[in-house]
Design brief:
single chain; 280 residues; mainly alpha; Ribosomal Protein S7; two-stranded antiparallel ribbon; 9 helices; 7% strand; elongated; Ribosomal_uS7_dom
Length: 280
């Protein structure tokens, strides 16, 4: 049985594959079998189409060249204009004339009014807290509805319309402050009236002094306002409401300003007190 099994199990030689695993060989064989006489010549572009396409390509190429040339010419003319204006090479716009005007020289980061009022609100050196208060005040003025101007208590001449004030909260704040700022203050001179009686003397105020006096009045009025809530933004909310009431003519600071001016007019005879030719 073993001998019979040996004779029956005859090993055969391994055969190769009937197809190629290379992608190049079928392509080569396919191209070699193509007959050029069997191709459809109508699928190829005609001479007219080739001429049309070549002319379009030439026109597009010429348009690109013209565009680049125009841009280069414009840049050269702009550089020549800058140099002729005295601005110097490498600057897009002409340099400003020197010396600079005084209103263009900025020595502080914030507006002078904002900086002054922030310092007036500061307590115990907490500048960051005062700045947060000022930011909340300006945000409230910006998001509030336009105020209703009272014709009996007009603002400063040249003020913008009421609808434009929320667009510029710094101008809103400055306008309210300068409108109620007093022009004078009363200085008390002891014994100036004779017989030990004190004399009230009107003294003019500078711009910063006027704004400081007006804002101290605003802070005093805010301390008397009733709180409508609680939280860290309660105080700046009162200040913003008082500023809006000033612009609308509802604040009592208008009466305080008028009272100071009336007293100053009454004591106008003592304006020259202490000067040459006036009895001390």
């Amino acid at each position: 049985m073993k001998d019979q099994a040996k004779h029956t199990n005859v090993t055969t030689k391994a055969s190769t594959r009937a197809f190629s695993t290379m992608a190049r060989r079928p392509a080569e064989g396919f191209t070699n079998n193509i007959d050029s006489t069997q191709m459809d010549m109508g699928a190829l572009p005609t001479e007219e189409q080739r001429a049309k396409w070549s002319s379009e390509q030439d026109a597009a190429r010429q348009l690109f060249i013209n565009t680049v040339t125009e841009e280069q010419n414009s840049l050269e003319s702009l550089n020549a204009l800058q140099i002729s204006d005295g601005s110097g090479e490498g600057h897009k716009f002409p340099l400003p004339e020197l010396p600079l005007p005084r209103d263009l020289i900025k020595k502080t980061r914030y507006d002078p009014v904002v900086e002054q009022l922030t310092n007036l609100m500061m307590r115990d050196g907490c500048k960051a807290t005062a700045q947060r208060y000022m930011a909340f005040i300006l945000q409230t003025l910006r998001t509030s509805s336009p105020p209703k101007i009272n014709p009996l208590r007009p603002l400063l001449p040249g003020a913008p319309p009421a609808g434009h004030l929320p667009l510029n909260p710094v101008l809103y704040l400055t306008l309210a402050l300068d409108s109620v700022a007093p022009l004078l203050r009363l200085r008390v001179q002891k014994g100036g009236a004779g017989g030990g009686a004190s004399l009230q003397i009107p003294v003019p105020l500078s711009l910063r002094q006027r704004r400081r006096t007006a804002f101290m009045w605003i802070l005093d009025a805010c301390s008397k306002r009733k709180s409508r809530g609680s939280g860290k933004n309660m105080f700046p909310a009162k200040v913003a409401e008082e500023i809006i009431s000033i612009v609308e003519g509802r604040s009592g600071i208008w009466e305080k300003r008028n009272a100071v001016h009336k007293l100053a007019v009454t004591a106008r005879a003592a304006v020259n007190y202490g000067q040459k030719g006036f009895r001390k």
